[in-house]
Amino acid sequence: MNFSLSLKQHYDDLTDSEREVVSYLYNHMSEVKKMGIIEVAEKTLVSKSTVLRLSQKLGYSGFSEMKKYLTNLDVQQTVNQRNSNLVESLRIEEKNFFEYLENITFDMLTKVFFRSKNIYLYATGSTQAAYLQIFYSQLILLNLPAKLIFGQTSLEATLESIDDSDLLIVVPYGGETEHIKEPMRVISASGATVISVTSFGQNFLVKHAKYSLFYEGIPLSNYNVSMIQLGQLLDFLIRKLQVK
Fold first, then answer.
1. Relative orientation angle of helices 16-27 and 48-57, to the nearest 10 degrees
2. The model scores a pTM over 0.90
3. Largest CB tally within 10 Å, which of 89, 156, 171, 222?
């Protein structure tokens, strides 16, 4: 998996020593390409097993595979520095995201959709809600029992009927939206299957969901973020459901 995306997804699970190794790797990419695991361990004053454990926490089979993806990142950053062309930047962002999609086991997710009595859909922001509305329409066309939940009051009302035969898909941005925390605790206790769809990283919602999907919110300015990857993720999921 792309090193940057893997790091965003797992950084919160790293120890202080592992984070120091990551900092060294990031700041010395060109040198690390020529180094072995023992040399990295010596440079960062940790054990060889700490470097290996870091590699595995980030989703790699070992140090060699992690170094391979770190080298790819170094090449990409070099390209970015030489070429600020918008099209090239978009191409790199898309390549990274589709590498992530290739590593998702969608078969498990599609089985949940087809065995659920109700499929509840809930978003916390207007952009997320717009993408989820399209996703809802596509689920209906597949004759799946989708139900949109609008607003906090409707989410809380759903608690009265949701059970272990239901599926809830929650689409906030960072996964720490305060008003969803208490309902999520109740829903988790009900046995319902929860799929979180958030930006990369560990958060409250990820910890309370059975399955987690991620996307990158790409900054457009100081006040605006593109969530095109959210749309692509939901579209990809629909395509998987269509061929089930």
1. 80
2. no
3. 171
